[in-house]
């Protein structure tokens, strides 16, 4: 699909759609790469809203067709993510009336989302490189499509890193940090990473589903009580992304109520992150 044609373009062409230093959308390193001193073995392309402007740079002739594919994909993923989120919340006894920032049909009013295309070229020395370093997503949910190449791994309690093999026609659903907060930890966000492969290129497409950027996200009142105190303070998605940019994998801990005050934050090597 569009992703494969995009990453196979010559490097100079891809740079025409480079993410600007303070921008969110466009071609560049993985979003989380700024947290690490070593480069990761991957390329990324982030799409927030319409990809039109960037695609026009990449494919002056064909961009409309490719934009349509992306926009259709985003639309379908948004519907799917909404359905999945409500099903997951329903299993905890939460209804649409319990969430003020949803309308009665269950759509999230003005919710924010993004599409992250990832490309991991075959790597001659895969044991010495990482495609995407371990992280949790800052979303409510992430819907991930991977091509037919292994690479995604998740951290499983007691088992360590476990490969999540691609299933033809299947999608992987990751719980993100905001659903973790909303569910007061009942749906824990998943630590995951992408390793690289000696022989095959790998592609993945992550649909990042978030709430409206300025609503306060906090543990749902139905899920807290005298025996289950709220574990997290309320925070907007925008604030959480800023927190993530500062504390990265300790961001969730930093919004925990009664988090220990000393020693858990290491702010030495972080600068900025945008989505995901
Ligand atoms: O490539 C993968 O399988 C993981 C991608 C991912 O975790 C992300 O884009 O946040
Ligand atoms: Fe991720």
UniProtKB/TrEMBL annotation:
Pathway: Plant hormone biosynthesis; gibberellin biosynthesis; Hormone biosynthesis
PROSITE patterns, A to Z: FE2OG_OXY (PS51471)
Residue span(s) of domain Fe2OG dioxygenase: 111-211
SUPFAM superfamilies, per the entry: Clavaminate synthase-like
GO BP annotations listed: gibberellin biosynthetic process
UniProt keyword annotations, A-Z: Dioxygenase, Iron, Metal-binding, Oxidoreductase
Top-level EC class as recorded in UniProt: oxidoreductase
GO molecular function term, any single one: metal ion binding
Names of the cofactor(s): L-ascorbate
This enzyme's EC code(s): 1.14.11.15
Family: Belongs to the iron/ascorbate-dependent oxidoreductase family. GA3OX subfamily.
Protein name: gibberellin 3beta-dioxygenase
Species: Tripterygium wilfordii
């Amino acid at each position: 699909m569009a992703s494969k044609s995009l990453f196979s373009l010559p490097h100079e062409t891809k740079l025409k759609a480079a993410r600007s230093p303070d921008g969110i959308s466009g071609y560049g390193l993985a979003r989380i790469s700024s947290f690490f001193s070593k480069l990761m073995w991957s390329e990324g392309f982030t799409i927030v809203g319409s990809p039109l402007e960037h695609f026009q740079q990449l494919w002056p002739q064909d961009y409309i067709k490719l934009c349509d594919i992306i926009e259709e994909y985003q639309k379908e993923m948004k519907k799917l993510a909404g359905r999945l989120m409500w099903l997951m919340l329903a299993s905890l006894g939460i209804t649409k009336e319990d969430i003020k920032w949803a309308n009665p049909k269950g759509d999230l009013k003005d919710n924010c989302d993004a599409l992250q295309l990832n490309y991991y070229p075959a790597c001659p020395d895969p044991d010495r490189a990482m495609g995407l370093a371990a992280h949790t997503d800052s979303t409510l949910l992430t819907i991930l499509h991977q091509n037919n190449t292994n690479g995604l791994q998740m951290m499983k309690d007691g088992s360590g890193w476990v490969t999540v093999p691609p299933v033809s026609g299947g999608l992987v659903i990751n719980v993100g940090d905001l659903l973790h907060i909303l569910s007061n930890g009942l749906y824990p966000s998943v630590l995951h990473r992408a390793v690289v492969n000696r022989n095959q290129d790998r592609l993945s497409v992550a649909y990042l589903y978030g709430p409206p950027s300025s609503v306060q996200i906090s543990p749902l009142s139905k899920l807290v009580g005298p025996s289950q105190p709220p574990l997290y303070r309320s925070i907007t998605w925008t604030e959480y992304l800023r927190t993530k940019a500062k504390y990265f994998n300790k961001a969730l801990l930093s919004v925990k109520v009664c988090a220990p005050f000393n020693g858990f934050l290491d702010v030495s090597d972080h600068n900025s992150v945008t989505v995901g």
